[in-house]
Amino acid sequence: MQLFRRQSQLPRTVWLLLAARVINRLGAFSLPFLTVLITTDYGVSAATAGCVSAAFGLATIPSRLIGGRLADRLGRRRTIVFGLAGCAAAQLGIAAADSIAMVTVCALLLGLAFELYEPPSQAMIADAVGPAERVRAYSLLSAALAVGGMGAGLIAAGLGRWDLRWLFVADAVSCLACALIVRAVLPADRPRTLDHTDERPAGSHPWRDRVLLVMLVFGTLYALVYLQVMMGLPLSLARRGMRPADAGLLFTVSAVTVVVAQPVLRLKRLSALTAPATLALGYVLLAGGLAGLAVAHTLPTAMAAIVVWSLGDLLMLGPAYALVADLAPTGGTGSYLAVYGISWGIAGVAAPILGTQLLDHAGATVLWAAMSLLCLVLAAGQYLITHSLAARNERPIESHGCATPVERGGVLHRGETG
Q: Residue ranges of the Major facilitator superfamily (MFS) profile domain (predicted)?
């Protein structure tokens, strides 16, 4: 609770949005078990189940972009409510499906609604706080999701032992509850327009912003690794003689770690690091946790590996999203966050196919070892982001006289977040 008292200066809108996300997160545990549900209830191979999950991931790409456009053009609150209601309907469809074809259709519909929520919710946070507070605000979002994740993992472990379909019912209920809260307590907002007096030569359009595109590449690879854990862990446990539902316990351990370790973010040495350096450290910790999963054959050793993984994940969300928000021109936050966010859709297509193929042909050890190596590559590659930011900041400021992210109090250097 001390962590949350220290953040009390954040606007009321942020707190209400975080509370809604906690409730939504309580039910957000069904997707990691989608492949397990398909293989157990319909008797298809893991590769086929991976293709269905990939179809879901493919559908999230236009969903994220549409969500960003609607957030900036129609309003944040309307987009959030519409996306959550769509997710609930699709989740109930998966729970009631009686064929693999129906599950596939509902998974596609879920993907189309799934990411509508993210750009407006992230943009509301960015718009509600100043650039100097964005790392803190997004880190608090991570903590809020982890608080909800504590209960989510336990619910998943319980319902998963009974019937995996009830996971999707509970997820739908949490989406509807979150939608009602957002509609009732968040203030209505008007459509936003791009303030051309704040445009930069490099970035008035997100697809022409080179720094954002570099961030997108690294964000996609990170999402690929993250989704391997979310989707591959239940299958990996089953291959090693453990119950897939025990993944819910591991997700709970991860959530507890993220919440308990929040004070680490306040350490002076860590806050003095640049954003790319913080991300590099996070990747090293992720690599260590994945290496632990590669050799973990018991639940306690898997829990130890997840703790290390979660410490790395703790360092990822705040600097990355705050930096993207700082890159955006006024009124374009939703669009910038949407473009960056399609990394999850791209990874959502590749992760199920890659993960199931590696599990089928090479085994769990190779899967987690490969992901660990990729994280080390990503840690070394943060130099490219540093170089891209330096090149952007050295570019002359033209007619409109806009400041660079550093001059605007952004997150190139985390020590400037106050």
A: 13-387
Residue 110: domain span: 12-188+197-417
Q: Which of 51-65, 133-147, 303-317 has the lowest mean pLDDT?
A: 133-147
Task: Give whole-number Cα distances, 176 to 25, 86, 170, 179, 181, in Å.
Answer: 12, 9, 10, 5, 9
DSSP string, 177-224: HHHHHHHHHSPP-------GGG--TTTSSGGG-HHHHHHHHHHHHHHH
CA atoms of 20 and 180, how far apart (whole Å): 9
pLDDT at 105 over 80: yes
Q: Tell me the three-class secondary structure of 266-296, residue by residue.
A: HCHHHHCCEHHHHHHHHHHHHHHHHHHHHHC
- For 299, counting Cβ atoms within 10 Å of its Cβ (0-12 exposed, 13-18 middle, 19+ buried), the class is middle
Q: Classify residue 3: in a domain, yes or no.
A: no
Inside any domain, residue 5: no
- Is there a domain that residue 57 lies in? yes
| Contact residues for 138 (Cβ-Cβ < 8 A; gap 6+) | 122, 125, 317, 318, 321, 322
8-24: pLDDT as tens digits: 567 777 787 777 777 76
Query: From its phi and psi, is residue 302 left (phi > 0), alpha (psi between -120 and 50) or beta?
Result: alpha
What confidence score (pLDDT) does residue 52 get?
83
List CB contacts of 41: < 8 A, sequence separation 6 or more: 164, 165
Highest mean pLDDT out of 77-81, 127-131, 209-213: 77-81
Task: List the CATH number of the domain containing 405.
Answer: 1.20.1250.20
**pLDDT computed for residue 307 by the predictor:** 92
Count of structural domains, the chain: 1
Identity of the highest mean pLDDT range in 47-56, 249-258, 277-286: 277-286
Q: How far apart are the first and last CA of the chain?
A: 21
Per-residue confidence (pLDDT) for residue 392, from 0 to 100:
66
**325 HSE (CA, 13 A, CB side):** 28
Asked if residue 327 belongs to a domain, the reply is: yes
How wide is the angle at C-alpha 348 spanned by C-alphas 228 and 365, nearest 5°? 20
